[in-house]
């Protein structure tokens, strides 16, 4: 079983060995060569998970996003 299906899919950590902050800043600054630590299967899982949550919340009349179908603001990997 893929680890991200059990414990989550990201780590916000200042650990220099993982360079999460450096990679994130590079990506935010538009560096097209910023390294991506996620593999294709991880991205597919994350996007499917987001789509399922988007569908569930947008179908709930009590949700602030009720009826919204585009997921604006979410950046897919």
Summarize this structure as a short list of keywords or feature phrases.
77 residues; mainly alpha; 42% helix
Summarize the structure.
This protein is mainly alpha-helical. It has 3 helices and no strands.
How would you portray this structure in words?
- With 77 residues, the protein is mostly helical.
- 42% of the residues lie in helices and 0% in strands.
- The chain contains 3 helices and no strands.
- The chain has helices at 4-7, 20-28, 40-58.
Number of H- or I-type helical stretches: 3
Shape: globular
The ordered string of helix (H) and strand (E) elements is HHH
Helical content (DSSP H or I, runs of 4+): 40-55%
Distance between the termini: 21 Å
Structural class: mainly alpha
Mean pLDDT: 77
Binned strand content: under 5%
Low-confidence stretches: none
Number of strands: 0
For the report, how would you describe the main beta sheet?
none
Using only C-alpha atoms, the radius of gyration works out to 15 Å
């Amino acid at each position: 079983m893929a680890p991200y299906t059990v414990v989550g899919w990201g780590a916000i950590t200042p650990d220099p060995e993982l360079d999460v902050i450096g990679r994130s800043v590079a990506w935010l600054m538009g560096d097209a060569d910023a390294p991506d630590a996620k593999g294709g299967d991880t991205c597919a899982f994350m996007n499917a998970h987001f789509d399922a949550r988007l569908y569930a919340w947008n179908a709930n009349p009590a949700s602030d996003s009720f009826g919204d179908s585009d997921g604006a603001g979410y950046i897919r990997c």
